[in-house]
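lol forgot to send this yesterday, sorry. struct tokens for the thing we talked abt
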């Protein structure tokens, strides 16, 4: 029997680039793990994300650095196992402060798709600077929300159907990231549960949510695919 503390609050993700001693934090993001609107239904690999998170005060990022990321890096270095790479903290903001749910040593999906487009400077150059032992300067956009919704095969996560023609997303403001896709008879078709993600940027979470819903409702067959319409709801409410 495993007894866990019940933690109440909003979950969010923080990614840091780490060179063994120093870390650079990326904008915070929030995933939506349940299949259906209102965070109902089975857990999935993530049905959508947005970033940054306007519902959190600006100090949250520095708290993440000082209370979570830096202590972990310092402790690993002190143990003779300095960590180099992407450190992903899955966190929850409770009434008693930040708590860690999990760590991963990679960036998150689908959060990466809404975090990396915000970077105004070169990621490769930043990684090389960090590996050279210096803290790089990463410039992030700060006037928009990036919000993306995952299009999954109908029946996902249990019986997602493969081989369905991909929706054509032609909106000029949509950024499309492909995941579970393959070719069949020289055509792109679905192959796996989460097929693609459509991301837009807008001045607010509500505007971004409305725009992505408009694009998907207009272009995606609801019999063949499933997606959420409430990505970003925690920021809106
Ligand atoms: N967003 C969840 C994960 O990448 O594990």
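and heres what i got for the seq, position by position
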């Amino acid at each position: 029997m495993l007894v866990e503390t019940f933690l109440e609050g909003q979950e969010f993700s923080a990614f840091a680039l780490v060179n063994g001693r120093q870390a650079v934090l990326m904008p915070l993001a929030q995933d939506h793990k349940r299949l259906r609107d209102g965070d109902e239904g089975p857990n999935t690999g993530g049905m959508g994300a947005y970033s940054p998170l306007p519902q959190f005060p600006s100090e949250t990022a520095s708290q993440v650095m000082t209370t979570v990321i830096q202590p972990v890096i310092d402790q690993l270095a002190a143990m003779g196992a300095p960590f180099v790479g992407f450190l992903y903290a899955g966190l929850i903001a409770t009434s008693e402060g930040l708590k860690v749910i999990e760590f991963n040593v990679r960036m998150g999906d689908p959060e990466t798709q809404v975090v990396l487009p915000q970077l105004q400077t070169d990621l490769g150059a930043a990684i090389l600077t960090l590996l050279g032992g210096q803290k790089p300067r990463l410039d992030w956009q700060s006037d928009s929300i990036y919000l993306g919704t995952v299009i999954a095969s109908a029946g996902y996560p249990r019986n997602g159907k493969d081989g369905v023609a991909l929706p054509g997303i032609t909106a000029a403001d949509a950024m499309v990231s492909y995941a579970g896709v393959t070719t069949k008879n020289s055509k792109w078709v679905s192959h796996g549960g989460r097929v693609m993600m459509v991301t837009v940027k807008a001045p607010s979470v509500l505007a971004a949510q409305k725009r992505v819903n408009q694009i998907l409702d207009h272009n995606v067959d609801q019999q063949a695919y499933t997606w959420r319409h409430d990505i970003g709801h925690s920021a809106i409410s």
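The chain has a mean pLDDT of 96. anyway ping me if u want another try
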